[in-house]
Structure formats: structure tokens, C-alpha cells
Amino acid sequence: MTTQPARRLWEVVEPIHAVVYFSAAASTTYKAIGLKGWWMGYFASRAAALGPVGPQVVTAAFHGFAPAVVAQAVPDCWARASPADVLAARSRLAADALADPVARCGLDVGSLAADLVTAVGRLSFEGRVLAAAHASLPVPDDPLLALWWACTVLREHRGDGHVAALVAHGISPVEAHVLKVAVSEASQDALRPYRGWTEEEWSSARLGLLARSLLTEDGRLSEEGAILCSVLEHVTDTAAEPGWWALGGGDASAAAIDQLAALAAAAQEAGALPLRDALGLPGPRPA
């Protein structure tokens, strides 16, 4: 099956965006500004564009994380570091994590960054709170950081649309991940602890999906479940199409995606990315 253009765009911007959470220097960088632990660095970094919001807002915006895990980091993170301090630290991480990958793939950062910033300027953000928050931040002067900023906006633009699709179809955060495992997009061992769900919460979600005839007794997708997952992905891809068209569509979008794919691959080779399994990205998974 041919990958939808909007999905292909997500596949290349997601890993570029994610380097600020998973690069080797992330934990020490966030610790240096007063944050405590990996989870606090992650939640504060991704939420900082929203301002010093509380755990309910972060849980709602991110959708996929267990509320108890969010509450362990938010709002205590804002007593330790201001959103401005967190955003500055995140920018340093992005610059450091992507400098070597850019050199590896010989990317013309200035030209690609200009195209991506223009694309972001063409987007609308109705109902897309995380994307709008990041789009409202000043565009960095440094071309590499401008490229990372634009990838982040495009990533959150799609993510906001995906959350809307899940909510509209009555799929809870933990149920969404159980379904992701059922379609073999991620493993339970990687996904459940990364999202902070307990074994009891995970099992309860499986039973709920089974009761709705979306899973079989052995945890596989039922026919109804397969139809629902197909609908969810179609709605998400359709909602994300403005990102593809904002890049110019056709050959222009394809060329930009090819360059971003080279950068994402170079970042993975340089060790700046997490396990793809935890993010649900396609491709080989660790043994």
C-alpha cells in the first residue's frame, strides 16, 4: 500500500522534532536549568510553548500519557524553571543534536528552512492548540533552529488532528495505544511504560475494547477494530493534508520530504533518536 503523502510528511518530521527529548544530552541539559528527571524534562519541554499550564491541560493536549505520570512533573516543573528557560534549553538541544546529522547528509539548511517556514505561514490552526502554541513562538534566526521549529509545528499540527479523530470516535488515550500494539505499530513492552500506563490500566483498556468488539480474545484486531483503525488513520491523514499542500504539493513537497528524510536518517545514525518502536514510526525495530 502506498503511503499517503501527509503520513510520509509525519514520518520525517517526527524524528527531527523528537531529538530534543531523546538525544543523549537531553537529561543533563534540562537538569542544568533545574528540572528533575527525564519525564519532567519531556513534559516541560513540549508544554512550554503553552505557558506555565497545569497537569490537566498537559494531559488533555498530549492525550496519550497517563494523568498520574503527568502530575508527577507538572506543575512542579514551572517552580524549577520558567517556560522561557525551558524553551531556550530546548533550542540548544536541537542545535547540538542536529548539527552533526546536517553535516552527514550535506543538507542545504538555509533553503529548506525557508521553505518550511513559508509552509508554516500558510497553515491554519483552528482547533490545533499545541501546533498554534508553537507557531506563535518567534521564528528562530538560525536556519537550523528555524528548520527544527517548523518541523515541530508540522508535527504538532498532525498530532492535534489525530487527537481530534480519537476523541470523535470515543477512543481513550490508553485504548489508542492498545490499538497501536494490536496493529503491530509498536510493542507493548516499549509503548506501555513509555506512556506511563500501569498493567491494570492497560488490561482494563483491552477488556473495554474487547467488550466493544474491537479486539479478539487473543488481543488482535477484530474486523470492526480493523475498520475503525482504518477510519482513524484516514481522518488523521486527511486532517494533516494542509501540511503537505503548504509545502507546495507535488514535486515541491516530495523534494522537501526527501531532504527531511535524509536528515532524519542521519540523526538516527548519529544516535540522536529514541527507539522508533516507542514513537510508533514504521521501520525495523530492535530485537
The ordered H/E elements are: HHHHHHHHHHHHHHHHH
Structural class: mainly alpha
Q: Helicity level, as a percent range? A: over 70%
Major sheet size, sense and barrel closure: none
Estimate what percentage of residues fall within beta strands. under 5%
Q: Give the CA-CA distance, first to last residue.
A: 25 Å
Average residue pLDDT: 92
What's the gist of this structure?
It contains 17 helices and no strands. It is mainly alpha-helical.
Q: How are the SSEs placed, and which strands pair?
A:
Elements: H1 5-17, H2 19-22, H3 26-32, H4 37-47, H5 55-62, H6 67-73, H7 76-80, H8 83-105, H9 109-121, H10 129-135, H11 143-168, H12 173-182, H13 188-195, H14 199-211, H15 223-246, H16 250-269, H17 276-279
How would you describe what is shown here?
This protein has 287 residues and is mostly helical. The chain has one domain. 71% of the residues lie in helices and 0% in strands. The chain has 17 helices and no strands. Helix 10 (129-135) packs antiparallel against helix 11 (143-168). The protein is globular. It starts with a helix and ends in an 8-residue tail after the last helix. 44% of the residues are buried.
Characteristic key phrases:
single chain, 287 residues, mainly alpha, 71% helix
